[in-house]
């Protein structure tokens, strides 16, 4: 049992081992915060790096992210008790009319793996629900996903709804999905665009002024 074995379990996508080693580490008196910051987050950072270098692929990222989730399920109550601060709060979902969620789920898991608190609204989410939830939860970022070109306008509608609520600029909007481009992000006034889950973490940090 060690931080290194938790790191390895997350890196290699062994959810059962990640959970068991996390429980053992807590019982041995290792702080939840140390497990998060010295094992889990570094492992997911390495997964993101390997993905960007073409050494890991989406299925492997998903397996590692699930292992991270297994560890987080055990750590979360301890982190709440210890009042450990997150990097920021992100409301995430797939826009109205779109039922695709694999990319969104991966972004969610990578963001959590980096130390963000993520509120996942699921799929087919209206612009109003994004804005209302972000306001209620005092979120820092709204993350919008779309896989269909026909649902992309939902992103623009969400930004317009945010402006109407007087929250534009206070809450950042980050967008992504297969048909999305930087040009489209610029056109609709999104604060950030991420082509994949790994760069979404970097972009979220950048939007909040956190060193990557």
Overview in brief:
This protein is an alpha/beta fold and 212 residues long. It is 56% helix and 10% strand.
Shape: globular
Identify the strand order in the major beta sheet: 2-1-3-4-5
How many strand units? 5
CA radius of gyration is 17 Å
Distance between the termini: 29 Å
Poorly predicted runs:
none
Average of per-residue pLDDT values:
93
Order of SSEs: HHHHEHEHEHEHEH
Going by helix content, strand content and strand pairing, the class is alpha/beta
Strand % is 5-15%
Main beta sheet strand tally, sense and closure: 5 strands, parallel
Helix share of residues? 55-70%
How would you describe this structure to a colleague?
- The protein has 212 residues and is of the alpha/beta class.
- Helices cover 56% and strands 10% of the residues.
- The protein is built from 9 helices and 5 strands.
- The chain has a 5-stranded parallel sheet with strand order 2-1-3-4-5, with helices on both faces.
- Helix 6 (127-136) crosses helix 7 (153-164).
- It is globular, with a radius of gyration of 17 Å.
- The two termini are 29 Å apart.
- 44% of the residues are buried.
- The mean pLDDT is 93.
Layout of helices and strands, plus pairs?
Layout: H1 3-11, H2 15-27, H3 32-52, H4 58-81, E1 89-94, H5 102-113, E2 117-120, H6 127-136, E3 141-145, H7 153-164, E4 172-176, H8 182-188, E5 192-193, H9 197-207
Parallel strand pairs: 1-2, 1-3, 3-4, 4-5
């Amino acid at each position: 049992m060690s931080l290194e074995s938790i790191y390895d379990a997350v890196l290699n996508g062994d959810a059962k081992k990640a959970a068991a080693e996390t429980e053992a580490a807590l019982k041995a008196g290792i702080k939840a915060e140390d497990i998060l910051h010295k094992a889990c987050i570094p492992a997911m950072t390495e997964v993101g790096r390997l993905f960007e270098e073409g050494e890991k692929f989406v299925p492997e990222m998903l397996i590692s992210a699930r292992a991270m989730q297994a560890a987080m399920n055990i750590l979360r109550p301890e982190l709440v008790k210890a009042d450990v601060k997150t990097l920021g709060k992100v409301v995430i979902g797939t826009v109205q009319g779109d039922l695709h969620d694999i990319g969104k789920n991966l972004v969610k898991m990578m963001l959590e793996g980096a130390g963000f608190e993520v509120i996942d609204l699921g799929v087919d989410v209206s612009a109003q629900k994004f804005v209302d939830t972000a306001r209620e939860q005092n979120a820092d970022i709204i993350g919008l996903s779309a896989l269909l070109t026909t649902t992309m306008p939902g992103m623009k509608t969400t930004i317009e709804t945010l402006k109407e609520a007087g929250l534009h600029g206070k809450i950042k909007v980050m967008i992504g999905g297969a048909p999305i481009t930087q040009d489209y992000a610029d056109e609709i006034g999104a604060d950030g665009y991420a082509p994949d889950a790994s760069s979404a973490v970097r972009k979220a940090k950048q939007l909040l002024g956190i060193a990557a």
